[in-house]
Amino acid sequence: MDFAFHPGPEDGATRARRGTLVTPHGRVETPAFMPVGTRATVTGLTPADVRAAGATMILGNTYHLLLRPGPEAMRHFGGLHRFMGWDGPILTDSGGFQIFSLAADRTVTEEGARFRSYVDARRLDLSPERSIEVQTALGSDVMMVLDVCLPSTAPEAAVREAMERTHRWALRSLAARTDRSQALFAIVQGGLDPSLRAASARFLTSHPFDGFAIGGLAVGDTRAQRRDIVGWSAELLPRDRPRYLMGVGTPPDILEAVAQGVDLFDCVIPTNLAWQGTAFTSTGRVRVTRSEYRLSDEPLDRACACPTCALHARGYLHHLMKCQEPLGPRLLAIHNLHHYLGLMRGARAAIEAGRYGAFLRATLAAIDRHEHDATGRSPGRRAPAPAPAPGAEEGSDRPGTEAGGPGEARFAIVDTSSGAPAVLDREVGEVMHPVIGAAAESEQLYVAQSRLRERLAEEGPPLVLFDVGLGAGSNALAAIRTARAAPPGGRGLLVVSFERDLGALALATSDAGAARLGTAREDLLAARALLASGRHEEARVSWRLAAGEALAALRAEAARADLVFWDPYSPRHDGALWSVEAFSTLRTRCAARAALYTYSAATKVRTALLLAGFCVGVGDPSGPKDETTAAALSCDDLDRPLEGGFVDRVARSSDPWPEDAPEDALARLRAHPQFAR
Question: Catalytic residue at 93?
């Protein structure tokens, strides 16, 4: 049976449409949700479970199946269908997204991607042709072209370059296809720019692809941005071929995209969140690990007829999850798939009845507020905490004691809880180096922990230090003092300090500020030169200011960091600099053996670093903090890398993710080379 798509009736009030996908392994009624079987299994479920939930088509992943068991095993077993015991249609992703999100030490060129296997550390190549070769061995009904995936919020020039390479790779994928019974879908890219999305759709639809996907979303964008781009892109795609929204994922996201005319969906959310104790219901999410459900006799969802809801109370599911019994997430995953696939059945019925608009409104109205928050926050994320009152110290119960009168200026010098002087930002309400003071923390947490002295004693070109969060200059000056004292014959030091507000440095370099902070004369002259001209030079030391918003400055920075002191305000007040996007941007500006040190040990910070491609470890204590955080591009460069138990703790945590974490963040974390090897 050849591949075909037959469009059906459309809803009058929206662009929602019915259709039928015909494949060699059966028919798929659309709109349809495909459970994700990344490694030839929908996690924790048998093919019979998946079929009983109502699924007709599932997804497998080329990247993971290439690494293990490999295409030779697929040929031996006669393809993925026979290997995993699934007789329905299968769509295989090309591996492009995983190359972007999971592979450490990767290189992307026009030829393809070269990366290190997380299974056995071998160097492997994945080109458009190799991706099609592997997908042919898998025997999937629908193959995807290899694409270049970037965060949707990446700079316009980078998005355009990735889009154009995706187009060239799509044509190479088309030329590499040898089995016409396997359909091939192209992927529309272009970030959040409607003009780029339009250009991508125009180019790809002029070639004989069997269907079209909308890619590059749910990687930094908000729900409102996704909705707009999906609607814009879907309208540009031909009516007679299927439209597939890749990896987007919550029930509201899917239902809103159905209204825009999208036919196919996949996401790891229903199974991954089951392992965290979260169920999707007709009235919103239920977190069964909460103590309020310990004695609950209620089913997960009175409107659901799945085996979990028919047989088990919330109290029993709470017990299983608390005991870490594997049956708990399995039962939740069964329910979640029934819920997702039931939504698809309801959507198809509503389209046929010409009332999809009413169905959409009623369904969204019944879901908890956090599922479709008008503020644009990612689903399940908490609202930012209110700022503390000016003078309150971050990480301390004791307020700062101001040196000057309150309200006189934004920055003031205060005494920390240890009696050391430090700089307070009244507007933000945070003290820089709030407990042990600037000089001590700069030396202890940054200079000593990074082994800066030993690094400078090595032979080689000048060591490049990114000082993110210049503040009053204490970290940069501690590094410069270390370089001055280094023995001759070693490396020089280039410090690039990133800062948008120089008020703290101006206070610290004033006569009164320098006296209060005890700044040495040589340090004072260096800081004043930086403040006056943006540069300071001395023997073996260069110090340069990158003024303005740190992310923009990082993107424009030509130097590559060997060492990073990450010391901006806390995530509470400067969340953009503790995001996946921020650390992903930083990673592109790092040298091969770069290392990062920061005062925060927050789970959200560590998961953001991991999702950005860093390896992450436990850093040295600082003041009352038992530990801080270290990160590097290679786990070999960490003294105490996080172990697999960290992922288990994240899975149990109620709020472990930065605001821009992707919806399959836990799956990415589990597959991170640091934990997968």
Answer: yes
